[in-house]
Amino acid sequence: MTAFDHDPIVEMKDIEKHFGPVIALNGVSFDVRPGECHCLLGDNGAGKSTFIKTMSGVHKPTKGEILFEGKRMDFASPRDAMEAGIATVYQDLAMIPLMSVTRNFWMGREPVRRVGPIKFMDFKTANEVTMEEMRKMGINLRSPDQAVGTLSGGERQTVAIARAVYFGAKVLILDEPTSALGVRQTANVLATIDKVRKTGIGIVFITHNVRHALAVGDRFTVLNRGKTLGTAQRGQITPEELQDLMAGGQELVALEGSLGGTV
Amino acid sequence: MSDAGQGAGAVPAKDERVKEISGLRKALIRPELGAIVGTIAVFIFFFAFAADSGMFNAQGILNWSTVSAQFMIIAVGACMLMIAGEFDLSVGSMIGFAGMSIALVSVTLQWPVWIAILLTFALCIAIGALNGFIVVRTGLPSFIVTLAFLFILRGFTIFFPQLIERQTIIGGIDDAAEGDWLAPVFGGKVGGWIFDWLGSIGAIGVFERGTRAGEPIVDGIPMLIIWALALVAVAHVILTRTQFGNWVFAAGGDAQAARYVGVPVNRVKILMFMFTAFCACVFATCQVMEFGSAGADRGLLKEFEAIIAVVIGGALLTGGYGSVIGAALGALIFGVVQQGLFFAGVESSLFRVFLGVILLFAVILNTYIRRIITGER
Q1: Contact A107/B263, CB-based, under 8 Å?
Q2: Which among B14, B29, B241 has the least Cβ separation from residue A121?
Q3: How far, rounded to the nearest angstrom, does the alpha carbon of residue B93 sit from its chain's CA centroid?
């Protein structure tokens, strides 16, 4: 059974977004199905960030519609999108370094025991679940009290992904999760993406690194200057074609000549 | 976490690059460590140099614990606010303002003291909320917003009594508070019978002549101290054990990240401004009930003393990290040193030198500790 046997969880149709006179998105269509990893590629300024912020409820589209499980949705805030099941892991805003892994993991959704009007945090449950979820993702914490600041960049991304999965995300948007990471940590994050996809969650993987995209992607959509240049399935496109598409074609061909095709 | 590993059957392999953390290093990242060491050092110092000055008999202890409790009350509020990522520089002016408000309502208007106290609390908490509202709405640094209120409140505190009573000190609150039900909650004393008993068995000093001959010199614990301990206990539990406490850390650690996961950051910050105002008001009410008067210059520089106590207690000025217990110990260090220098016969202006030096040390230590926690090099 492949991902294409399912209907899309989220479908974005002809999304336009204008900021004053600037047209950031000019008719972008995109969808993600359960259990697939759909890569959104594009160079800086292509509109990737604006697009995912529209998807996660930060921006309202100027035109176009968002369907969630076939129903038309109008997200008023990131909170709305989150409740519906769209979780976003931002590259830099994922975690608070000074707080412990447990406190970060449960932030905003703490397990509580009520004593009168006071909501005590249930640290026993919180710690156990955190350790267990992190182990599922392949990370052994020294202790759940460990500050997130002591974790590596890849581990921080993993905590954020584990958190989103645990809280029932149906769609997981990953905003350049690998761009600041080393080779080994990147491999870990890509492996995590693969694990999460197999549980039936739809993943939107934003990147400008073709290699990372091809490593885990099922479908690839390229954005350029606020427009989709097209969507390709795995196996239908070569890394070179994808790279050219991203750069808008011409200039990179010229560049590649001088760099010997290493870009 | 060995117990967690055994449950899953195969114990996961340890990462060989993660060094085992020594107990000392673990203790080092507790925010209140510096304050604990400081407290012990201060007590050892004064035991050695001022033990025979009466600093550690009943009156001496009451003396420095009262001063420490005053610092503690405002430090608790400043601590919670600082962890939530904000400052309040208007605490000192708020103390003067609250005291004057109680005096004007109870003495000038001749309303019952309990109404004066409740009105003042409502007013101060509303001003705290306004402070917070302006900060979260405009996004301006709380430093600037509360600096404005430092001047606004102090100005009113001098203006109103001059306009109404033609003086800047209003007395007679003790007479007005006679028989009031709420006033003793701030100005009263508790546990008198314990001190009577201690006096009767000769454990503490008693008056030897005069109308109170035979009564113990220390005749109870001031409510001020009870308020301080209660505030410390409640704030500590809320900060470390509750959901709201997690939100306070999150709001100060990274407001944007906290908002993304649904923490009501603005509400948390405004509530902490209100709590700080509440603490300033408790301080002012206790002071007014003790002195029986309100003065327009009360509370001068208190905001900085509160912030220094909090920083000595291990909180980071940038928010997101700190401890109420640490702040309380910072306040205790303050009280003991300020009064200890007096007992030891040292020139009291040297207290300020001490403040500056210890503040510098505390900030340097805290920065170092933060590097350890966040793994920065």
Answers
A1: yes
A2: B241
A3: 15
Q: What is the pLDDT of residues B91-117, one digit of tens each?
A: 999 999 999 999 999 999 999 999 999
Give φ, ψ of A113 to 5 degrees.
-115, 125
Of B18, B21, B249, Cβ closest to residue A99: B249
Q: Any idea of the CA torsion for A101, B4, A111, B265, to the nearest 10 degrees?
A: 0
Would you write out chain A's pLDDT as a tens digit for each of its 263 residues? Answer: 454 567 889 999 889 999 988 888 888 899 999 999 999 988 877 888 889 888 888 888 998 999 998 888 888 887 788 888 898 888 776 688 889 999 999 998 899 999 988 999 999 999 999 999 998 888 888 888 888 888 888 888 889 889 988 998 899 999 888 887 888 888 888 998 999 999 999 999 998 888 889 889 999 998 888 888 888 888 888 888 888 777 765 555 555 666 655 55
Give the C-alpha separation, B64 to A29, whole Å: 71
The 10 Å Cβ neighbour count of residue A34 is 18
Contacts of B5 in chain A (CB under 8 A): 140
Q: Please state, in angstroms and rounded to a whole number, the distance separating the CA atoms of residues A40 and A174.
A: 10
Closest Cα of chain B to A127: distance in Å? 10
A121 vs B13, B242, B250: nearest CB: B242
B18: chain A residues, CB-CB within 8 Å = 142
* Chain B residues with CB-CB distance to A109 below 8 A: 261-262
Best residue of A100, A109, A129, A140 to probe chain B, by most B CBs closer than 10 Å:
A140
Annotate B101-145 with DSSP letters as a single string: HHHIIIIIS---HHHHHHHHHHHHHHHHHHHHHHHHHH---HHHH
Q: How many CA atoms lie within 13 A of A221 on its CB side?
A: 22
Residue A136 Cα distances to A162, B7, B16, B312, angstroms? 9, 14, 20, 41
CA distance B2 to chain A (A): 9
Question: Rounded CA gap, B82 and B124, in Å?
Answer: 19
Distance from CA of A166 to the nearest CA of B (A): 14
Nearest to A98 among B242, B261, B321 (CB): B321
Return the C-alpha torsion angle B195, B218, B56, B202, nearest 10.
-50
**Contact between chains at B242 and A119 (C-beta distance less than 8 A):** yes
Phi, psi of B320 (to 5 degrees): 85, 0
Q: How far apart are CA A208 and CA A91, in angstroms?
A: 13
Tokens matching residue A213: 């995209």
CATH topology of domain A1-46+200-263: Rossmann fold (3.40.50)
Q: Is B89 on the interface with A (CB under 8 A)?
A: no
Domain boundaries, chain A: 1-46+200-263, 92-167
Question: What domains lie within chain B, and their CATH numbers?
Answer: 32-47+55-183+224-372 (1.10.3470)
Query: Helices then strands (H, E): number in chain B?
Result: 17, 4
User: What are the chain A neighbours of B259 within 8 Å (beta carbons)?
Assistant: 78
